[in-house]
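Per your request, structure below.
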């Protein structure tokens, strides 16, 4: 699954000491695309060939109809102790875990002395996302 942020084409790494925002855009390369199975067939038609544009509604209907679960696995390496750490979380559209056009509120702030502080009250707070010019759905 391709990532927009961090950009997986540039081998970016996550810094696990601060909260991270990971973005996957649902486009014709995405396994979450409503017609992903047909598009995997080399002779199969693409969404654009069928004349159906990819919309937010078509993505939501697809997630609901097929009861799709998104499982995220994050593995990190802590360089000082050489310890490996892992995290796993499951997201279901039917359980309202998947939210469109939102982003997490900023929760990491720099203090006057230059150190960072995390506001855990805002850790899971959602705010409207700014429009993304690369977006493929309405």
């Amino acid at each position: 699954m391709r990532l927009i942020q961090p950009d997986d084409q540039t081998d970016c790494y996550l810094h696990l000491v601060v909260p991270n925002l990971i973005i996957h855009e649902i486009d014709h390369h995405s396994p979450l695309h409503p017609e992903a199975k047909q598009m995997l067939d080399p002779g199969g038609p693409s969404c654009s060939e069928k004349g159906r544009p990819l919309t937010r509604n078509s993505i939501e209907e697809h997630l609901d109809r097929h009861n799709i679960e998104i499982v995220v696995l994050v593995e990190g390496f802590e360089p000082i102790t050489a310890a490996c750490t892992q995290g796993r979380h499951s997201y279901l559209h039917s359980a309202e875990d998947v939210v469109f056009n939102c982003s997490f509120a900023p929760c990491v702030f720099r203090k006057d002395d230059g150190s960072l502080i995390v506001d855990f009250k805002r850790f899971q707070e959602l705010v409207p996302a700014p429009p993304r010019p690369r977006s493929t759905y309405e």
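The helical segments are 36-40, 56-65.

Regards,
D.
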